[in-house]
Amino acid sequence: MHVLKFSRKSLGIPYAVFLVLFVALPLLVLLYYAFTNGQGHFTVANLTGFFTDPNTLGTLCYSLAVAFVTTLVCLLLAYPAAYILATSHLKRKQVLILLFIMPMWINFSLRITALKELLTVFEGNLARFPFTNAVVGMTYDFLPFMILPIYNTLSRLDGSLIEAAKDLGANDVSAFLKITLPLSVPGIVSGVSMVFLPAMTNYVVLDMLYNSTYIMGSLIGSYFSAYNWHGGSMIALILLAIIILFTLLTRGMEDDNQNAVGGALL
Amino acid sequence: MKKGLRLFIILFVLVFLYAPILILILYSFTNATTIGAIRGFSMKNYVTLFTTPELRSMIFGTILLAVGAAFLATILGTMGAIGSFYSSRKAGTLINSLNEVPVINADVVTGFSVCILLVVVLGVSKDTFIPLVIGHVVLCAPFVYLSVIPKLKQMDSSIYEAALDLGATPARALRSIVIPQISSGIVSGFALAITLSLDDYFIATYTKPATFDTISTYVVNATKGSQTTIKTALWALSAVIFAVVVLIVAVVNIRGTKDTAKERAGA
After folding, report:
1. 3-state helix, strand, coil in chain A (%, to 5)
2. Which of residues 176-235 of A touch B (CB under 8 A)?
3. A26 and B95: CB-CB below 8 Å?
4. Thinking of the domain A60-265, which architecture would CATH place it in?
5. DSSP secondary structure string, A104-142?
6. What 8-state DSSP symbol labels residue B189?
7. How far lies B64's CA from each of B74, B114, B207, B209, in Å?
8. What does the pLDDT look like over B129-141, one tens digit per residue?
């Protein structure tokens, strides 16, 4: 029995080693590079430099603004759509849901190209509306990632709770506000976490829509092009800190069954 | 909610999601170089797409990378899931938490950190494709792991014990009892891994050889250039990818419906 248990457990060793080598170790290297200079001496200049330079602070604010507005727009579009999908009794519902998920499987750069061509028709010169375009591009890219988790949470909702609320005298609006909305928070949190962070870092969307303003991701890109590993590592570390903060804030609020998103439907 | 309003919201979101790509597909069958007046039907974009060596090798390379990385990620992730499922709580939690890192991390950070470790610190040449493949396995394997774990939890563990009691070796029992029960998780993990690798831009940018391009890196560079033949050939590529995705979704969905029907009939 002892030998047998050992053999099943030991199957995990290659993956554990892989994770330590290529997930944990790279982060330690980032930490080292972020707090050293070109000569390998310890320094906090990269950190203080980021928080004292108006340009980089501006970049942080701009990416927070893009991410915040994108998340809000995604939520305002996704929630009603997910709610309608979850509460409808159509025969072909599964097909309709697939239609909302399918864009996830089409290469994002090609989809943004399509959006760019269409926006050019409407706007003429894309450079005239940089912020709007950034938000539209990010929303177009990430909307399915907001719809799916909210839909999953809403479709598992116990309908008898709403009936009970109505029996007890609640009208549609207050039943929604007091029952449906609070119970769908896990889905909203999952969706927000899947949209907010990419919207702060996916600078290619901005590049492709001719928005030359930097977001946090662009800073890593520009340090990478300049072979400035120390500066780039510090930005990566700051992003990591934001991610950890976000995860700690939303811990326990998320839906457990959301991670394998697209795969669940395949 | 009123029925008309419900319909309007659903249609509005669908139009937003599909109008750009469908319009681009329509224009891929014309001579047009921008969205505007249509000047007649043409297949020239498709001819360019399938005859330009640069485009062909880029598409072939992307697919090869996706299949290869997904294959490695599926083996590693599945073994990791089985191992961590039967490990002590402590070891299991450690693997779980490390597995979460690439899932919640921004791709830019993942790509940059893998590049720093392998290329800058260890001096591995990007031309060996090792950083690129490792980067993509880091991206994909955690999702395979997350697809397999729930299937292990649903599994009936007494069948495995029964197989051992009837004389199967642990390896045989694993192969004939455990693997079949978690196969749907392995398959969806593999499929997810392929789509993640195909869609990736950031990890590829930071780890790929200078002479190699994936669809994403190629398209992003092409939009910055001014070559209209290449630009419109990429419209044709969008149409091809769209058709392939629709086909796969349809086949999987029809097969899935049949399986459910069978299960219902069996029960």
Report:
1. 80, 0, 20
2. 193, 197-198, 200-204, 207-208, 217, 220-221, 224, 229, 232-233
3. no
4. Orthogonal Bundle (1.10)
5. GGS-HHHHHHHHHHHHHHHHSSGGGSHHHHHHHHHHHHH
6. H
7. 15, 21, 16, 15
8. 999 999 999 999 9
CB contact under 8 A, B104 and A201: no
Distance (Å, whole) CA A177 – CA B23: 39
Write the CA distances from A47 to A36, A66, A199, B50, B247, integer angstroms.
10, 23, 23, 49, 50
Q: Are B131 and B115 in contact (CB under 8 A)?
A: yes
Of A116, A144, A224, the CB nearest to B206: A224
Question: Nearest CB to A266: which of B82, B237, B252?
Answer: B252
A14 to B82: CB separation less than 8 angstroms, yes or no: no
Residues 17-36 of A with CB under 8 A from B: 18-20, 22-27, 29-30, 33
Report helix, strand or coil for B41: strand
Nearest to B203 by CA among B128, B102, B125, B121: B102
Structure tokens at A123: 């706007």
> Where along chain B do its domains lie?
1-42+227-267, 54-224
Averaged confidence pLDDT in chain B: 90
Residue B39 has pLDDT above 80, yes or no: no
Whole-number Å distance between alpha carbons of A33 and B34:
45
Q: Which of B226, B235, B258 is nearest to B21 (CA)?
A: B235
- Residue B114 near chain A (CB below 8 Å): yes
B58 interaction partners in chain A (CB closer than 8 Å): none
So what's the ipTM on this one? 0.89
Question: pLDDT of B102-129, one tens digit each?
Answer: 998 999 999 999 999 999 999 999 999 9
Q: Report the distance separating Cα B71 and Cα A202, nearest Å.
A: 27
CA distance B209 to B57: 14
**Per-residue pLDDT tens over the stretch A190-233:** 999 899 999 999 999 999 998 888 999 999 999 999 999 999 99
Q: 3-state class of B123 per DSSP?
A: coil
The tokens for B172 are 């045989």
Does any CB of chain B come closer than 8 Å to the CB of residue A266? yes
Place of tokens 């490792």: B134
| Per-domain residue ranges of chain A | 60-265
Compute the Cα dihedral for A235, A240, A243, A248 and give only its sign.
negative
Please tell me the CATH code under which domain B54-224 is placed: 1.10.3720.10
pTM summary value: 0.89
SS3 content of chain B, % helix, strand, coil (to 5): 85, 0, 15
Per residue in B56-107, pLDDT (tens digit) is: 999 999 999 999 999 999 999 999 999 999 888 888 999 999 999 999 899 9
